[in-house]
Amino acid sequence: MTRIHTKLSLASAKSKGEFSSIPSAGIRLALVLLCVTVFAGCDTSTGTKTAMQAGAVSKIGKLEVQVSVDGDFSLTLAGAKPRGFKDVPLSYVSVELWPKSKYRVTLVSPESVVTGLALDSQRAAEDAQRAQTFCTTVAGIPIQSIAEKALVDGLQASRRFELVTAVSGPEGASPSGAGTLRVRIENWGLYADSRENATADLVQVGLNATAVLAGADGKRLWEHKDYFTSGMHRPISEYGSSPDLLKSEMEETARRYCARVANEIRYAK
Amino acid sequence: MKRFGYSFLPLFLLGVLVSGCDTRTPVAVHFNPDGNGPLTSIKASTILVQVEDLRPAAERDSVYQIVADVGGTQTFYTKKPVPLIVQDALVSELSKCGHRAVTDPGAPVDARVKIGLERFRAFLSTTTLHYTMEGQIDAEISVTNDAKKTTAGPFRISGNYQRKSSSHQVYPPEKELSAALAEFVHNLAFDSRFAEALQ
User: Fold this and answer.
1) What is the value of pTM for the model shown?
2) What is the model's pLDDT at position A160?
3) Which residue on chain B is closest to A90 by alpha carbon?
4) What is the ipTM of this complex?
C-alpha cells in the first residue's frame, strides 16, 4: 500500500509567513475551496433500511404485492473476495483548510481506480463462468412466485390490511388506490462463506433484495435492503451433486426472507 | 546555535516518524432495547443467552484501528468485553419483550440461544469522493428448545451501519457500532427462524 497522508495547515503556514515554501499552495487552496463549496455539509448517514412510517402504514387498507427478480441464479465466489488496501494502491494527499477544521479534501490517484475496476471485472468474469454450469440444474426454481406467495400469505395473516393481493405492473402509485409493497430480488444463488476460517469452496444460499412499501399516493413509507442467507455452509460440490438440496434451501431462504419483510410491516409502530 | 538547531530538527522529526505514536482510545457502545416484534407475540419463557467469541485473534484486541503511514497506530477498544456487550443487548431486548433472559448456564431454562460472534468491528473505506465509516456485526445463531427437544440453526444474522462523509476526521466509531448493534438485535428479533425456535 502506498499511501501518503500529509496534512498541511495552510492557515497556520500563512500566519507564519511560510506560504511561499509550500509548493502549489495556491492551487491546493483553490481545490480546497472548490471542494468545500461542492461538498460542504455532505455528511450523510445510510443504514440498510429507512425507518418505517407506521402512522401512514396503518392508513393502508388494501395492499398490493409485487415481486420482481432481476436475473437468474448467480454465483459469487471470487467477487466476494475483499478488495482492500492490499489490492489497490492508493495515493492520498489530504490538505487541511484550517487547523481543527472539519472540511478537508482528499485526492485519490487515478491508477487506484483503474486497478480496482480491473480486479472487479476479472473476478466477476470468473464467477459468471462458474455460474453457467449451475444454471442448467437450478433453472426450475420459481423464486418469484415463491416469494410472492410467502409475502401475500404472511401479510394477510398479520391482519394489518383488509386485503392483500399479488399484482404485476410498472412502478408507481396503484391505479386501484391501494398501497404497494414491491420486493426486488437483485440476485440470488450461492455466495462465498465470508467467515474468517472458511475454506475456499464453502458456500451458502442467499439473496440480495430491496423491499419498498409505498402508500396509495405512491409515497415511500419504508425501504429495506437486505443480504439474506440461509446460514448453512456447504461445499459447492454438495450443491452441484444434489440439485434438490439447492432447490429446497433456496426456496426456504426466499420464504424466510419474505417472512422477515412481513414481520417488519406487521410490527411497525 | 542556529546551525545546531537546523541540524537537530530533521533528526527529531525522523525520530518521531520512526518511533510513531501508538494510542489506545476507549469506545462506548450503547444499546436501547426496542421491545417490539415477533418476540412479543410468543409465550413468555426463560431463555439462556450465551455468546461465544469466534472473532479472529487480530480483531479481538481492537474494534477499529487506524495505521498511519508515519508509523503511528490509533487503536479503539471497548472497556466492556465485546461478547458481553452483545449478550447484554440481547438479554435486555428479550426482557423488554416479556421473557426472562438468563446468562447462567446452570439455570433451568426453556430455550438456549447461542451466538457465535464472528465480527464486531468498524471499518473505514474510501472512494474518490467520500469516506465511509461502517460498523459491522456478524454472528451465527443457534437455538435449542429444551421443551420441544429441537435445535434450529445455525443461521446467520448481521447488523450493519454506514456513514458517509466528505471529511475524514478520526473519531471513535461509537455511533457506527451502536447503530450496527441495534440493527443486529433488530434483525435477530424479527427473523422468523428465531421466533419459531423459541416458541
Assistant:
1) 0.70
2) 85
3) B126
4) 0.74
